[in-house]
Amino acid sequence: MTLGIEVNKLQLRYGSFTALHDLTFKLDGGKIYGLLGRNGSGKTSLLSILASFRLQSAGSVSIGGEAPFENAKMMEQVCFIQESGHMNEGFSVRDALSLAASCWPNWDDAYAAKLVKLYDLPLKKRATTLSRGMKSALGVTIGLASRAPVTIFDESYLGMDAPSRYTFYEQLLNDYMEHPRTIILSTHLIEEVASLFEEVLIIDKGRLIVHEETESIRTKGRAVTGPAEAVDRFAQGKTVFGEQKLGRTKSVTVFGELDDAACERAISEGLELGPVSLQDLFVHMTKRKGDEQ
Amino acid sequence: MNRKRRHPAINVALKLLYTYRWTIGIYWLVFLCIYVAIGVILRSPTVGAEMDAQGIWEGASTSPKVFLLVIGILMTPLSLASFVSNGVTRRHFIWGVSGLLVVYSAISAIIMVIGYPIEQWIYDKYDWPLELSNPHLFKDASQFGLIFVEYFFLFIAFFGSGWLIGSCFYRFNWKLAVVLILLAILPAMAMETVISADWIGSILQKAYDIERASLAAVIPLALCIVALVFASVFLLLRKVPVKRKVLS
Fold first, then answer.
1. Quick one: DSSP state of residue B203?
2. A5-205, superfamily in CATH?
3. What's the confidence (pLDDT) of residue B185?
């Protein structure tokens, strides 16, 4: 089962501070989404609302056509894993897994056991005394084995070392292929996971600035390098995210649709057109005053 | 994968019962050992002469009341987030904890009930006179039903007050929560007044001449207090955000 998500004019206020400003988007079921944003941009606030961790101040959220907050039928379909987790103080790893097994309707015991072995999780150890990496491993184990139709990982694998993270990406993709569901990954490790994203949402200062297919965003961003005058001529009228200059050579990152004619003209003027990584585009899109200092 | 699943509220109650099994078990073990020791000391030939016909067990309920108050305080701050993050609604969490409240209060009340005939048997064996020194719903150790009713309502009210205090601290900032303790402790105080038993009953009845209402009125009033606790917790927690845990 896959569930779509529809968000309409969503707002979240903490007192006088507005964390989310009129977010509106629609996510089809059965895809992997990347949610990107700088620290404090509102990613966790948005995901907390989707997972019914908190109620929005205004606007609406619907998952599978129903409002999820305090809706028992929907809440057990949305698994939200955060890095810090919410383990009960006295719980051992075994207790945490047992609680999850009793709560998630699609829980897969065999898969959970496989992941426990893969991450070498100590079942008898108290969850709160685990290292940061092991806590992350426990979180992703619960998230993956829950097989919840909407599974959200919010920086939940940041504490893992690189091999463990790659194991997670591999498991996530394999399990997603076997059991399609809606997955949202919020991360700062964009380059590592970018290949998993089918669509990307970028939030900045509580506003949705991009929601597109990953490939579409990638093709819109181009690094244009060549003689400074030719680069300037080419970039005129286009959205330029950033520029670098070395002697008479200049490189700019342009964003927007480039038709074949424009590309051919650039090449004929001796310019090189190169791809821009999703991470670089994200950095440029969310750059603020003072970032370059 | 289809698994046979329990109702979420029952699941919450059972998981919490399991979580606190050692805490509760060890508490009662230590409590009983201490009370037996106190009993032995107080009934020893040197001290016992001054004890007259006073029972020991009658004064035993204060400790379990405070213990259940503390367990109640811990309920929401330690457990709400772990259940909600596992897809359980706040409503089902509240029902589950309410069930736990009833079960723990009943277990504690049953232990109190069992203590009275045991004490009576010991006193009878040594030919010591035994009388209740404070007012109670029951008149002697053989009225098991009334002993249970008295302690069950007192325990559930203290547990409930603790749950309210913990929920206030979870919902509000600590400064406001400290002030709200005064309101949260009211159910325990109200239950003590309605039941009018033990030393509070003694003060009310002897010092202020306030007679206890008839049992037909006491039980509905006690049930109202319990319902008020559950309703108050529901109002506090029904929309409470799950707080983000600070990394440790």
1. I
2. P-loop containing nucleotide triphosphate hydrolases (3.40.50.300)
3. 94
